[in-house]
Amino acid sequence: MNEPMSPVREEELHALVDGELPDDRREAVTAWLSEHPEQAALVAAWQAQAEAVRARYGAVAEEPVPARFNLDALMRDGGGSRRPWWTFAAAAVIAAFMVGGGAGWMARGATAAAPISSGSITADALEAHQLYVVEVRHPVEVPGSERDHMTQWLSKRLGYAQRIPELQSLGLKLVGGRLLPGPTGAAAMYMYEGDSGERFTLYCAKTTTPESALRFREGSRYAAVSWVDDKAAYVVSGPADRARLEQVGKAIYEQIDKGNWKKS
């Protein structure tokens, strides 16, 4: 007779997301998540966030540690003599911080200080997509059934008229929308869903970046189509199916272009 499944601890869920869960527990934890949809959605959100962080800052971890943090240099004073043992411990902590999580936070600060680019806007939109697309009960702030209210509210917050695209011809229904922080103020995100459960989001915000044509950005799980027009950035995110994503993106692009969304 099989032994009863042991309770799943939160640290095991984090280990699963980090790819560090032992093989002998992976099957049990996966089975437990299949019976607990709310926890499964939470884990999916963690995985999406982790993927977004790796996509943006993964290259930093591969960079060499700056010379000023070289352990051997830190262990010697100006005269070439060895420092006390406790300075070695401090040096090791600094090096570990640089190679590990600290590098990511430094990269985040450097990114924030750098000029805004269309690439960073697309990355922000993809992060928002990955965070909210897995939500079951609260994917949006205002439901699609309140389109008029949502249009007025987000138009006021963004500072220019919003005209929410219709995608029913593509089998996509408006789930709703929400307010997000943008590159120069507020941003809006609208979510659409198909009968099969596929979800797409449209992110839009004012920007000072140059105008651009449609650009495709590929990811392992999600992808995006983006463009900049008339001082506004638009990013359509969805499953990493390029043909389908470009179909949705072009439909939205045409409606926005014909609708002539002018920014002040």
Structural description of this entry:
The chain has 264 residues and is an alpha+beta fold. The protein has three domains: 10-60, no CATH class; 61-111, no CATH class; 118-259, Phosphorylase Kinase, domain 1 (2-Layer Sandwich). It is 47% helix and 19% strand. It contains nine helices and seven strands, in the order αααααααβαββββββα. It has helices spanning 10-18, 23-34, 37-61, 71-74, 85-99, 101-113, 118-132, 147-158, 242-259; strands spanning 142-143, 172-181, 186-194, 199-206, 212-217, 222-229, 232-239. Strands 1-2-3-4-7-6-5 form a seven-stranded antiparallel sheet, sandwiched between helices. A hairpin with a 2-residue loop joins strand 6 and strand 7 (232-239). Helix 3 runs antiparallel to helix 7 (118-132). The longest helix has 25 residues, at 37-61. It is globular, with a radius of gyration of 23 Å.
Portion of residues in beta strands equals 15-25%
Q: Strand arrangement, largest sheet?
A: 1-2-3-4-7-6-5
Structural class given helices, strands, pairing?
Answer: alpha+beta
Enumerate the spans where pLDDT stays under 50 for 5 or more consecutive residues: 1-5, 101-114
Shape: globular
What CATH first level of the largest domain would be assigned? Alpha Beta
CATH level-4 homologous superfamily of the largest domain: MucB/RseB, C-terminal domain
User: Distance N terminus to C terminus?
Assistant: 71 Å
Question: How many helices does DSSP assign?
Answer: 9
Radius of gyration: 23 Å
Largest sheet: 7 strands, antiparallel
